Amino acid sequence: MSGSLIIAVDGPAASGKGTIASRLAAHYGLPYLDTGLLYRAVGRGVIAARGSLEDAGLAEEVARALNAEAVVASDDLTGRGAGEAASRVAGHPGVRAALLDLQRAFAAQPGGAVLDGRDIGTVIAPDAAAKLFVTASPEVRARRRWLQLTSRGEAIAFDEMLEDILRRDARDAGRGAAPMVQAADAVLLDTSDLDIEAAFDAARRIVEAARVRSGV
């Protein structure tokens, strides 16, 4: 097999897509981009400028000034507030347009790449050799995120976390600009009842089947 192996991993918050994508990248020796970090950085930038997350012009300005390498190296973009801000600024068409070329350039690296997000298989890399849509029930995803945040000392009730997850799902799926949707040729992977090893093994088998089909 030869050619460029692009792996697109989409899905809602706390589905396990990030962990699966990073494991796939390590397994295949490919560069990895969590595109959600870009939107989190935009949200953080708007807040740092004391602006409104509903200010589409300011959000686009922040997005166009992003340094992708600095964003990836940042270690303060994983909190609950950053995730909520990301979901809100991601609905601005100008923000998505500003980040489009950056993400596509990452995907176009020689040999391929692994990207995870909400619109990788539909917008960023529609010709990706392997596409996965990773999901889990809202309750399972809320519990995962709740455990993650409380282990870091963030105080939040489980019911509040579930409300956050449902609100973000509705916003991500309902936005006019590149909504979160499973690509027609993506393979659905439900991780509700899987631990990380089982989920990764299932994802790897999906990618291997895609490689056989595409000859990559």
Would you kindly provide a written description of the structure presented here, covering whatever features stand out?
The longest helix is centred in the C-terminal third of the chain and has 19 residues, at 196-214. This protein has one domain (5-214): P-loop containing nucleotide triphosphate hydrolases (Rossmann fold). Helix 2 (36-48) packs across helix 3 (56-64). It has helices spanning 17-28, 36-48, 56-64, 68-73, 80-89, 93-107, 120-124, 138-151, 158-174, 196-214; strands at 5-10, 32-34, 112-117, 130-135, 187-190. The mean pLDDT is 93. It has 216 residues and is of the alpha/beta class. Strands 2-3-1-4-5 form a 5-stranded parallel sheet, sandwiched between helices. 56% of the residues lie in helices and 12% in strands. Belongs to the cytidylate kinase family. Type 1 subfamily. ATP binds at residues 11-19. It catalyses: dCMP + ATP = dCDP + ADP; CMP + ATP = CDP + ADP. Keywords: ATP-binding, Cytoplasm, Kinase, Nucleotide-binding, Transferase. One of its GO terms (molecular function) is kinase activity.
